[in-house]
Amino acid sequence: MALINPKKREVQVKIVYYGPGRGGKTTNLEYINRKFKKRILNEMVTVKTYGDRTLFFDFLPFDIGEIKGHSIKIQLYTVPGQVKYNATRRLVLRGVDGIVFVADSMDLRREMNIRSLQNLKENLEAFSKNIFNIPLVMQYNKRDLADEGIPILSEETLQKDLNSRLNAPYFPASAIRGDNVAATMKKIIALTVSSLRKKLQ
Amino acid sequence: MDFTIDFTKEQIESIEDVLQQELIDLGVQSVILMDLAGNVIVNLDNGHANHDVFSLAALAAGNYGAVSAMANIIGEQEFSLLFHKGEKESIHFSKVVEDLLLLTIFNRDVSLGFLRLKVAEAIKRIQTLI
Ligand SMILES: Nc1nc2c(ncn2[C@@H]2O[C@H](COP(=O)(O)OP(=O)(O)O)[C@@H](O)[C@H]2O)c(=O)[nH]1
Ligand SMILES: [Mg+2]
């Protein structure tokens, strides 16, 4: 539900980073915040509990310039991944225009990825949205762990587990190093904004 | 993509007029009309406020949602008054219609009772415009 303000000729687009707890959603936004400092007018907002975990969400507003004479304001959000925070996760999804699913490549997190994706489907359904119809990008994060000898899931396994039916664009990534963080973001913005173009005359 | 609320330029201008007359002219610092997704629809201020309105709206949407969920848990439809009082500045939230909130930021020069009255009047007028 991107919001168009015809007076200011401004569009607000909501993109949510979703995925299991500790998968690297906040780290994605922190990297974007550092890397694109010039385009970010305000501070990143995070609502944390003690222990540095996302309690409610992170929020990062981001200007990408103009399309058809409208200035586009991208609002990046993350959800809290921990299972117990489903009520707040659902609040953050309200009015979402595009989703990045950040999966954790660690072997041990295989089940958690699958469960989190299932949870996303259900929460979208609560807003009468279908995961097959919403712009979506998959990110397989923490690929760098392989260099430290930590067992990780192969891209094929992740694709089979999470993306065989969705067929979303996907990126292997390392949020901590910044590998493919910008590429992931650019892809979801492109997908989301392209559905907007028709609407802007 | 679905666009639930679309406003025309004329609607936005009429809403701005209402907010200016009912609230800003009476000493309120700043007002934000926003939706529950956290989008800013209209923002006006008295020229001295310099708040990060997009972050405020994102947090207000989350806060409103959380408080509504608490109301449901204890068997209430909603809490009619949402108010955060600071030493100098305070924030008042009010539902305009389903999915739309009016956020008002004001200081000690404006009393809460008076503000509530004015917010109610502004909301009544906005409801006829949308
Ligand atoms: N090795 C590695 N660690 C990462 C990566 N991304 C995030 N982390 C770490 O994983 C932990 C959880 O990250 P965070 O961004 O808070 O996850 P969130 O719960 O999804 O927001 C933190 O300790 C991060 O430093 C990555 O690409 N590689
Ligand atoms: Mg987080």
Automatic annotation (TrEMBL), chain B:
Record-linked Pfam families: Robl_LC7
GO molecular function, one term: guanyl-nucleotide exchange factor activity
GO biological process entries: positive regulation of TOR signaling
SUPFAM superfamilies assigned: Roadblock/LC7 domain
Domain Roadblock/LAMTOR2: 15-106
Name of the protein in its database record: Putative regulator of Ras-like GTPase activity (Roadblock/LC7/MglB family)
Species, as recorded: Desulfosalsimonas propionicica
